[in-house]
Amino acid sequence: MLKTILALPRTVWLIGLISLVNDSASEMLYPLMPLYLASVLMAGPKALGIIEGIAEATSSIFKLVSGVIVDRTKKAKPWIILGYTLAGIGRPLIVIANSWLWVLAIRFTDRLGKGLRSSPRDALLAESVQENQRGITFGLHRPMDFSCRWGGEEFAVLLVNTELLGAVSIAGKILDAIRKLEIKVSSGSTQVRVSIGVASMLVTDKNITDDIIDMADKAMLQAKHTGRDRYAVYEPKSV
Fold it and tell me: CATH code at 82?
């Protein structure tokens, strides 16, 4: 089977790599969107529902539209390029968003790009291999497309001139904000949970940012192991 996978055309590997990089960028940004909307833009769950509803509807509709266009024109590559370009242009604009309507426009652009590229991309994958290779081609592409989502997302917040009690207070506020959003996983009843590690240190010439991130990471693992949906404070081991 390994020889069969390695023998797949370069187009299959290239599209898979592009999907991996693109989805990695999405997974670094959009999982933080509910927290950004709630704590920075002061928008509630209704705004998040409107944004995601319009975004996903746009993606679904344009998957159909792009599929019909590709069937008629027999040209898939321009739509794939356009789709990924829209996503690449839209995401960085989040830094200038000052209202949830801006976020809606950016999310709409991203999902429009997804809708325009998905069907043409699958059509190009199918055309690039023999009929008896299509199963393994899509079997390879899907893991590359979704591998960036394994394990959930992690991010760090560095607070300058903040004592440990202040960091603990902020961690608690983040937890409360996410709980109030009541974000569900797909269509199931499982709610999104978050684990937070809190650490504090006096910065000197002998330590660097990586040290405190490592301390906070260890505390986060402790929060995960003790039940998730909570924060834990880093406590150095006594020698």
Answer: 1.20.1250.20
Q: How far apart are CA 126 and CA 106, in angstroms?
A: 31
- 118 located within any domain: yes
Domain count, the chain: 2
| Residue 154 belongs to a domain | no
In whole angstroms, what is the distance from residue 61 CA to residue 98 CA? 28
Mean pLDDT score across all residues of the chain: 82
Cα(26)–Cα(83) distance, integer angstroms: 14
Specify whether 51 is located in the same domain as 105: yes
Two tokens at 22? 């693109």
Whole-Å CA distances, 91 to 120, 159, 215, 232: 22, 25, 30, 32
> Residue length, the chain?
239
For 160-215, what is each residue's pLDDT tens digit? 778 889 889 988 888 888 788 777 655 555 677 788 899 888 766 555 566 777 88
**Spatial CA neighbour of 121 closest among 19, 27, 4:** 19
User: What is the Cα–Cα distance from 110 to 63, expressed in whole angstroms?
Assistant: 13
Residue 180, domain extent: 164-233
Nearest 5°: phi and psi at 184?
-95, 150
Compute CA 138 distance to the chain's CA centroid, rounded to the nearest angstrom. Answer: 21
Q: Which residues pair with 66 in a beta bridge?
A: none
